[in-house]
């Protein structure tokens, strides 16, 4: 079949040990998340053992120590094509010298989070929910991270969170019914540390809904253990949003981690960031969302890349995002279509950006366009006009 929307990346491949096997690494070590964390690639010398770097990447790695640290788990490193500078996995985690060029429109805090913190670490932007930044560490670091001002500890700004003040704020604000734990990556905490946070949140009666934003299932699927899952399931309703951008990130290892979470009754969503040279085309995104559904993960958001300082080489136009949504909506399962959003620069929150399916609209009708471009008319119901000068208006007919 030609052009059926399938793709070589549509198969669940095993990342496996690869050439690490020749270095005497056992399967047991490889599958142990502690081994993976301890053996992360964090410097040029280590990275060059595995990847053929370009000059721009080499300079990027040297300078990354002052901005956002370099860190890649051995597992995730194995997904990178060592000789292909355009590898979509590589662009996400290997620093590039282009990161030090800041465009005038870029910011260190593009979503205006710091100015919306009633207590350190708690972003309260929306009326009924908060974002709780519990840590500044991740298993690997994404070069476009919207919180690179604090994440990884390499930049100038110190990460600050005050658990006790945050819990007290949550306890005294009865309008908050939804807490989103993020960071950094909350699943980097030990089971017991994470449990102490969940337990405390669950002791607050008005908090109905808890969710965790994490990229650990993608960067470090070994961390998703039966022990972690049985701890998490005690705190339902608990939802998890993972973060994957390219179908090649969904390996058999990741699929089995996601299955364990889903089997623990945790509804799973995915957030993707639209990135130039990574996932800025319909076929890649379609392959990704189909694989996500197979793992029982519902694509949730597709983010226009935030105006984070030094991200110009990874950003593309919002029109590209709209084009991707148009290429999905109607063409595939509705569950597979994420909401495309722009997090408004400066702190306006997430704004949905949709293709124009309403071609024309007035009081009497809507002219709408379907996924094939065909036009249809939907007549609006006639609303009786009630005029105080004409009390009998409603009585007519
Ligand atoms: C994204 C975000 C949330 C959660 O938004 P949802 O649309 O409910 O997923 C909450 N607070 C902040 C500050 C956020 O950035
Ligand atoms: S996992 Fe999330 S918080 Fe961590 S570097 Fe990537 S985008 Fe930033």
Account of the 3D structure:
- The chain is globular.
- The protein is built from 13 helices and 12 strands.
- Residues 1-5 have low confidence and may be disordered.
- The protein starts with 26 loop residues before the first helix and ends in an 18-residue tail after the last strand.
- It folds into 2 domains: 1-355, TIM Barrel, CATH 3.20.20.70; 357-397, no CATH class.
- It is α/β, with parallel strands linked by helices.
- Helix 8 links the parallel strand 3 (178-182) and strand 4.
- The relative contact order is 0.11.
- The protein has helices at residues 27-30, 33-38, 44-50, 55-64, 74-77, 90-93, 163-172, 191-202, 216-219, 226-232, 252-263, 282-294, 318-328, and strands at residues 122-126, 129-133, 178-182, 209-213, 238-243, 268-274, 297-304, 339-344, 349-352, 358-361, 365-369, 375-379.
- Pyridoxal-5'-phosphate (PLP) is lined by residues 123, 125-126, 129, 131, 180, 350.
Provide a brief overview of the structure.
By secondary structure, the protein is of the alpha/beta class.
Can you count the helices?
13
Helix content: 25-40%
Average pLDDT reading: 94
Bound molecules: pyridoxal-5'-phosphate, iron/sulfur cluster
Q: Return the structural class.
A: alpha/beta
What would the CATH topology of the largest domain be? TIM Barrel
Low-pLDDT residue intervals, each spanning 5 or more residues: 1-5
The CATH architecture term of the largest domain is: Alpha-Beta Barrel
């Amino acid at each position: 079949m030609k052009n059926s929307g399938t793709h070589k990346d549509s198969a669940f491949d095993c990342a496996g040990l690869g050439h690490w096997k020749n270095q005497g690494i056992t399967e047991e070590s490889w599958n142990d998340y502690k081994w993976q964390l301890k053996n992360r690639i964090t410097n040029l010398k280590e990275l060059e053992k595995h990847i053929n770097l370009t000059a721009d990447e080499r300079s990027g790695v040297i300078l990354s120590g002052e901005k956002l640290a370099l860190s890649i788990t051995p597992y995730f490193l194995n997904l990178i094509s060592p000789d292909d500078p355009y590898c979509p996995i590589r662009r996400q985690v290997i620093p590039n010298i282009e990161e030090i060029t800041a465009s005038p429109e870029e910011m260190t805090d593009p979503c205006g989070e710091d100015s919306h913190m009633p207590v350190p670490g708690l972003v309260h932007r929306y009326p009924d929910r908060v974002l709780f930044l519990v840590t500044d560490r991740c298993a690997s670091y994404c070069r476009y991270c919207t919180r690179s001002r604090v994440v990884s500890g390499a930049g100038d700004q110190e990460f600050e969170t005050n658990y006790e003040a945050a819990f007290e704020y949550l306890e005294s604000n009865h309008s908050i019914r939804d807490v989103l734990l993020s960071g950094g990556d909350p699943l980097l905490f030990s089971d017991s540390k994470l449990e102490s946070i969940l337990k405390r949140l669950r002791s607050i009666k008005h908090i109905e809904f808890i969710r965790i934003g994490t990229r650990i299932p993608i960067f470090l699927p070994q961390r998703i253990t039966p022990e972690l899952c049985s701890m998490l399931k005690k705190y339902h309703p608990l939802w998890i949003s993972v973060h994957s951008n390219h179908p090649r990130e969904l390996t058999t290892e990741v699929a089995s981690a996601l299955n364990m979470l889903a089997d623990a009754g945790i509804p799973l969503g995915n957030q993707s960031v639209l990135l130039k040279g990574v996932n800025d085309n319909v076929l890649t995104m379609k392959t990704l969302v189909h694989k996500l559904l197979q793992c029982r993960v519902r694509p949730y958001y597709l983010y226009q890349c935030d105006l984070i300082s030094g991200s110009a080489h990874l950003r593309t136009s919002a029109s590209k995002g709209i084009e991707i949504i148009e290429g999905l909506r109607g063409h595939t399962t509705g569950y597979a279509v994420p909401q495309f959003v722009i997090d408004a620069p400066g702190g306006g929150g997430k704004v949905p950006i949709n293709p124009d399916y309403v071609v024309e609209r007035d009081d009497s009708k809507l002219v709408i366009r379907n996924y094939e471009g065909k036009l249809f008319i939907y007549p609006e119901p006639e609303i009786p006009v009630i005029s105080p000068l004409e009390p009998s208006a409603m009585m007519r007919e």
